[in-house]
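Exercise 7. Given the encoded structure of a 253-residue chain, write a plausible sequence.
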């Protein structure tokens, strides 16, 4: 079965080379770049199997759906620029022959901090391989959701999520994500909200709950400084979101 890896990029110079190094098996790797101003493009162009398209970013769903249209194969491997495909998963991809009725395959992740794998995270499994005729992307808050028509399966192999961009870049992204999440929460009715969203909407409890959940319940205190760093990342993300929710309640724009 032929598969096309699809990657979205925007200033991913610290990550993209490691991601592409695991995709040398693919005839074509499609990159949709949103106007990177760092070395992302030059790094990607050094790989002979990479095809780059430029598109001004409007939202994640539109960007992904555009990328799917740029791919020539039926099956798409959708990857963030900081996803490192494991050797086990690459072997499964090369041997994959989908059964009738299967529309997508989910993968579990190992979250890494500067290359150090953590024993756990809040990052959920995601559908990364899918049939383009049976799936499409829709907006979901700050990100996108893949709508799947049909059955799913799970691969045994994993992907490392290993973002090595600077803290300043991470903070900028989190604030942008938070504003989009606030818009989503404000537009949803109470019955539509998941339990986690209902907690977040209170703008009080989430940061403290995340701290104890990750550090102690998930046991990341045993991972040393990388575990503590990840814990504070998630606490900061929830704090920024809470502050943006409070601003919304106060009518601040």
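Solution.
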């Amino acid at each position: 079965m032929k598969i096309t890896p699809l990657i979205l990029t925007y200033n991913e110079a610290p990550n993209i080379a490691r991601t592409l190094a695991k995709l040398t098996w693919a005839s074509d790797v499609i990159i949709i770049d949103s106007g990177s101003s760092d070395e992302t493009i030059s790094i990607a162009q050094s790989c002979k199997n990479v095809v780059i398209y430029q598109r001004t970013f409007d939202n994640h769903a539109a960007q992904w759906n555009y990328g799917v249209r740029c791919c020539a194969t039926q099956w798409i491997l959708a990857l963030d620029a900081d996803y490192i495909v494991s050797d086990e998963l690459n072997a499964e991809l090369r041997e994959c022959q989908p059964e009738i009725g299967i529309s997508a395959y989910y993968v579990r992740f190992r979250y890494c901090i500067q290359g150090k794998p953590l024993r756990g995270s809040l990052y959920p499994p995601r559908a990364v391989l899918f049939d383009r005729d049976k799936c499409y992307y829709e907006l979901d808050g700050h990100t996108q959701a893949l709508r799947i028509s049909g059955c799913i399966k799970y691969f045994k192999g994993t992907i490392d999520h290993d973002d090595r961009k600077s803290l300043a870049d991470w903070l900028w992204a989190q604030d942008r994500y938070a504003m989009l999440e606030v818009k989503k929460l404000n537009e949803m009715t109470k019955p539509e909200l998941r339990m986690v969203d209902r907690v977040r909407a209170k703008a009080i409890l989430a940061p403290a709950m995340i701290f104890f959940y990750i550090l102690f319940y998930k046991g990341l205190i045993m991972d040393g400084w990388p575990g503590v760093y990840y814990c504070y990342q998630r606490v900061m993300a929830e704090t920024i979101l809470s502050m943006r929710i409070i601003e919304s309640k106060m009518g601040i724009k």
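Remark. The two ends are 50 Å apart (CA to CA). Students should compare their own answers with the one above.
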